[in-house]
Every structure is written in C-alpha cells, then in structure tokens.
Amino acid sequence: MSAIWKMGGDLMMKLMELVHGFTGSWGLAIIILTLIVRLLLHPLTQKQMASMQKMQKLQPRIKMLQEKYKDDKETLNREMMTLYRENKVNPAAGCLPLLVQLPVFILLYRVLTNYDFSGVSFLGIQLDGSVLSTLGQALGLAVEKEHLGIMSVANGIMANPAGLMNIGAYLANTLLLVGIGFLTWYQQQLTSSGNPQMAMMNWFMPLFLAFICLSLPGGVLLYWGVSSLLGVVQQLRISRKTAAEMKQKPALFKEKPTKSGD
Predict the structure, then answer these.
(1) Of 55, 98, 218, 245, which sits most exposed with the smallest number of CB within 10 A?
(2) Quick check: pTM over 0.85?
(3) DSSP the chain
(4) For 144-153, what is each residue's pLDDT tens digit?
C-alpha cells in the first residue's frame, strides 16, 4: 500500500514540476494541477453534488413518509425506494465519490506539504508558510515556524502587539484562509434544506475548517481555495438545473405523500 501511495505522490510531483517548467511559477503550477484534478473528478463530483441537491429538496417528502409509515418499516422502505426512483436519486451517490476523492486530496496534501518551496510566494501568498508561521514571522518570533502553535502566537501578540503592524507578512495567507471559509459557508448555503437544526452546523463547519487550516502551508491553501471556488461554480450550475427539473416535475417535489388518499 505504501508503494502505491509513493507512486501516486511521485506522479503528482512530476506533473506539478512539468507544469512549472511551462509556466515558471509554482503558484500557477498548483492552480493548473488543481484544474486537472477537478477536471478528472468532474463526473464524480457532478453526480455527488446533484444527488445531495436532490436529497435536500426531497427532505420534506422523506420526513412525511417517515412519519406516516413509522410503524411499518417494509412499506416505508418501499415508498422511499419509489421516491428515489421517481426522482432518479441514488442515496449512495453522495458518499461513494467522496471515497474516491479523499485519496487524491491526501496525495496532493502530502506533495504540497513536503515540497520545499524555499520561501517562494505567489500573489503575496507564501507557499511554504502557514497563517500561523507568517504571523509569527511578523511578530518576530524566534520559534521554528513548523513548531508554532496558536498559544505561542497568542503569547507573541501579547508580548509584541506592535508586530501586528507588519500585516504585509501574513495578509495574503490570512485572506486566502478567510476566502476558503467563506466559500465553504456559501456552498453549504446552496445545498441547505432550511432546517434550523442544520443552521448551526452550516456556521460551525467553515469555522472548524478555518481553524484546521491555520497551520497548513500556503500551497495547500491555494489548492483548497481554487478547488472550493470551482466547487461553488459547479454547485451553482447544478442548483439551476435542479430548479428547472422541479418546475418540470413539481408533483415529485411537493410536500405530500407519494400516494394520494393514503
């Protein structure tokens, strides 16, 4: 298994170096590599997003069926399968593509994390520096950047608040991180079912994601940001397509049981 991971990592590394040979920019190489990965995974992500979108739209119908047949599991399963079949929804389609995408992301993460960009920046983004390390740099912290944690940076701010004035050192990485959080939140809004119980989760996930990204190198954030932006564009297209289908088949999405008079 480790040999397969190494082979996949080496392949992505060579592809990134090949693109860099044409562009002369590591930032552009990461963006083009992201486009290639998204293009290869497009059929899977398209199916995943479309399935999730329809599942969200069908939630009122699903809840009504669950309430109506709560004491008859066999009928409930049959009605649910009918509902999915009528709307061409495969519940598993929302999960299976993720299992395929996850190894790809792990490979990219390992390549971008381990590659020595030697202080290279792209549009002000330090590709080998995280938000914490660039902030530590602005604060003049002597701690090795890979050993910086939130508490050491917080202590650095308290000891040298004037260091925050060196905002140019960490601004680009921080803006990229904020952009990733916003795109994650916005994409969740596009697939939101309007369930109040999910509203808190829609806010929690972007904040949790931003917290995790604090220590990730700018190269990883650049990949994640571009990939998130492409994901939002793809989700917008699917939302419009689903809305058109709802207009063509309004009865399938109406909040009523599949069989009238039951």
Answers:
(1) 98
(2) no
(3) -HHHHHHHHHHHHHHHHHHHHHHS-HHHHHHHHHHHHHHHHHHHHHHHHHHHHHHHHTHHHHHHHHHHTTT-HHHHHHHHHHHHHHTT--GGGGTHHHHHHHHHHHHHHHHHHHS--TT-EETTEETT--HHHHHHHHHT--S-GGG--HHHHHHHHHH-GGGGG-GGGTHHHHHHHHHHHHHHHHHHHHT----HHHHHHHHHHHHHHHHHHTTS-HHHHHHHHHHHHHHHHHHHHHHHHHHHHHHH-HHHHSSS-SSTT-
(4) 555 677 888 8
Decide if pLDDT at 196 tops 70: no
Quick: pLDDT tens for 104-115: 778 877 887 777
Residue 91: CB atoms within 10 A of its CB come to 13
Which residues sit opposite 126 in a β-bridge?
121
The pLDDT of 79-88, averaged and rounded, is 78
Instruction: Supply 242's token pair.
Output: 């689903």
What's the rounded Cα separation, in Å, for the pair 212 and 19?
29
Neighbouring residues of 226: CB distance < 8 A, sequence distance ≥ 6: 30, 31, 34, 35
Instruction: Find the helix packing angle between 26-57 and 59-68, rounded to 10°.
Output: 40
- Which amino acid appears at position 68 of this protein? K
